[in-house]
Structures are given as C-alpha cells and as structure tokens.
C-alpha cells in the first residue's frame, strides 16, 4: 500500500508548514486528488489517520477534493470532462482524446491551523 508513504509525506509537509507558521496544531488538510493519480482515496484516508498520530496533525481532518479528468479534444478544439476514465473519448463527438489536461493531481491545497 503506497498510500502510507504518501500519507506520511503529506503529514511531513503539513507539519513543516504549520511549524513555519508557528501554529499550535493543524485542524484540517485540504488535498486535490485526481483519478489518474494512482492513489486509492479510501486507503489514503486510512493511512492519513495513522500517520498523524503523535504529530501536530493528530485529530485533524483530511478533506479530499476529487478532481475530474479533463482532456483536450482535437476535433472540437476544446477541453472536455470525461464521463468515464475507462473511455478516453470526447463526450461530445466521440473522438479519441489522448491529451490529458487534468486528473493526475495529488496536491496539498490548503491547511487549517490554530495559533
């Protein structure tokens, strides 16, 4: 389960930033997660809770914002949100859409901290 390593990295980065801001604790961590990131959301949530033990993040919430897969359709010349990650085709015209614009995200977006 590589989500444990990812969770530990999130906790380390958030702890470092909270310390830099002189925060006494972290209340919540906001994360952007795309379906093409290779991360299983439920496994990450479980690993996060275990990773926070004994840190400034103990008891904090992990708030995950799911990001859609957005591709560029060469036929429509427009960005389109995929209906399913099983089919990389434009939902409007059916053209194959191999150019991914977003959906690979694994980003620490924000922290909620207490002074």
| Topology-level CATH name of the domain at 3-68 and 103-114 | hypothetical protein PF0899 fold
Number of helices: 2
Largest sheet: 3 strands, mixed
Q: Which range does the strand content fall in?
A: 25-35%
- Provide the spatial order of strands within the biggest beta sheet: 2-1-6
Task: Spell the H/E element sequence.
Answer: HEHEEEEE
Structure explained in plain terms:
The protein is of the alpha+beta class and 115 residues long. It has a domain at 3-68 and 103-114: 2-Layer Sandwich (hypothetical protein PF0899 fold), CATH 3.30.2320. It is elongated. Strand 1 (25-33), helix 2 (41-52) and strand 2 (61-66) form a beta-alpha-beta unit. The chain contains two helices and six strands; from the N terminus they run αβαβββββ. The model has no long low-confidence stretch (mean pLDDT 94). Helix 1 (3-20) crosses helix 2.
What are the salient characteristics of this protein?
three-stranded antiparallel beta sheet; 115 residues; single chain; alpha+beta; three-stranded mixed beta sheet; elongated; hypothetical protein PF0899 fold; 6 strands
List the topology elements.
Blueprint: H1 3-20, E1 25-33, H2 41-52, E2 61-66, E3 70-73, E4 78-81, E5 99-102, E6 106-114
Parallel strand pairs: 1-2
Antiparallel strand pairs: 1-6, 3-4, 3-5
What is this structure, in a nutshell?
The protein is an alpha+beta fold and 115 residues long.
